[in-house]
From TrEMBL:
<keyword id="KW-1003">Cell membrane</keyword>
<keyword id="KW-0472">Membrane</keyword>
<feature type="transmembrane region" description="Helical">
    <location>
        <begin position="5"/>
        <end position="23"/>
    </location>
</feature>
<feature type="transmembrane region" description="Helical">
    <location>
        <begin position="115"/>
        <end position="132"/>
    </location>
</feature>
<keyword id="KW-0812">Transmembrane</keyword>
<feature type="transmembrane region" description="Helical">
    <location>
        <begin position="87"/>
        <end position="108"/>
    </location>
</feature>
<feature type="transmembrane region" description="Helical">
    <location>
        <begin position="29"/>
        <end position="50"/>
    </location>
</feature>
<feature type="domain" description="Glycine transporter">
    <location>
        <begin position="91"/>
        <end position="164"/>
    </location>
</feature>
<protein>
    <submittedName>
        <fullName>Trimeric intracellular cation channel family protein</fullName>
    </submittedName>
</protein>
<dbReference type="Pfam" id="PF03458">
    <property type="entry name" value="Gly_transporter"/>
</dbReference>
<feature type="domain" description="Glycine transporter">
    <location>
        <begin position="5"/>
        <end position="77"/>
    </location>
</feature>
<feature type="transmembrane region" description="Helical">
    <location>
        <begin position="144"/>
        <end position="163"/>
    </location>
</feature>
<feature type="transmembrane region" description="Helical">
    <location>
        <begin position="172"/>
        <end position="193"/>
    </location>
</feature>
<keyword id="KW-1133">Transmembrane helix</keyword>
<feature type="transmembrane region" description="Helical">
    <location>
        <begin position="62"/>
        <end position="81"/>
    </location>
</feature>
<comment type="similarity">
    <text>Belongs to the UPF0126 family.</text>
</comment>
<dbReference type="InterPro" id="IPR005115">
    <property type="entry name" value="Gly_transporter"/>
</dbReference>
Length: 203
């Protein structure tokens, strides 16, 4: 049930971020719905294909698509009358990343894969949808920018797995994993925290 709720909330939040990007890119209504869906289910679809989970989650359960339609429609109505808050896209993206990374990790964990695969699948679930959204809207994907993005997802999943290994309550492990991801994204956005750049010696 916790995994299912995380998935539904993550789908809704990423759908919101897809609509916000579509609006900023000047897309029409169809483009807004398409970008909302691509952002919301892109990462999970790729995860399910790689893990050979069929039917894919949103085909198996149409409620995911209903959540996308509702979240996208409400967002479109809201931004038609009121401007979105300044950091709305970054907040929606950070929350979606946190929820999807942990839920994706739980999916891989439930199929008894190694911790490394769990981290990879969770990170992919959290980042792939946003990357597809940015590519389709001609933006530089956040994952390729200098701030903490995929790194935040990896750190949160590792915290979740370590707490699970230490027999911490599942809800606590999930909460801490989500908070770590959100905290690192806040550091990246507000204080400009980032990984050090690579520097190659010149001959």
């Amino acid at each position: 049930m916790i995994l299912y709720l995380l998935d539904l909330i993550g789908v809704a939040v990423f759908a919101v971020s897809g609509v916000l990007v579509a609006a900023r890119s000047g897309m029409d209504l169809l483009g807004g719905f398409a970008l909302a869906a691509l952002t919301a289910i892109g990462g999970g679809t790729l995860r399910d294909v790689l893990l050979n989970r069929h039917p894919i989650f949103w085909i198996r359960d149409v409620r995911y698509l209903i959540v996308i339609l509702i979240a996208a429609t409400l967002t479109m109505i809201y931004i038609s009358f009121l401007p979105p808050p300044g950091y709305s896209l970054l907040i929606a993206d950070a929350l979606g990343l946190a929820l999807f990374a942990i839920s994706g990790a739980q999916v891989a964990e439930s199929t008894r894969h190694s911790p490394l695969i769990v981290v990879l699948m969770g990170t992919m679930t959290g980042t792939a949808g946003g990357m597809l959204r940015d590519v389709m809207s001609a933006r530089v994907p956040l994952i390729f920018q200098q701030d903490l993005y995929a790194t935040a997802a990896i750190a949160g999943i590792v915290v979740y797995l370590v707490l699970q290994k230490l027999s911490a309550p599942r809800t606590f492990a999930i909460s801490m994993g989500v908070l770590v991801i959100l905290g690192m994204r806040v550091l990246a956005v507000v204080w400009g925290a980032h990984l050090p750049r690579l520097h190659a010696a010149m001959s």
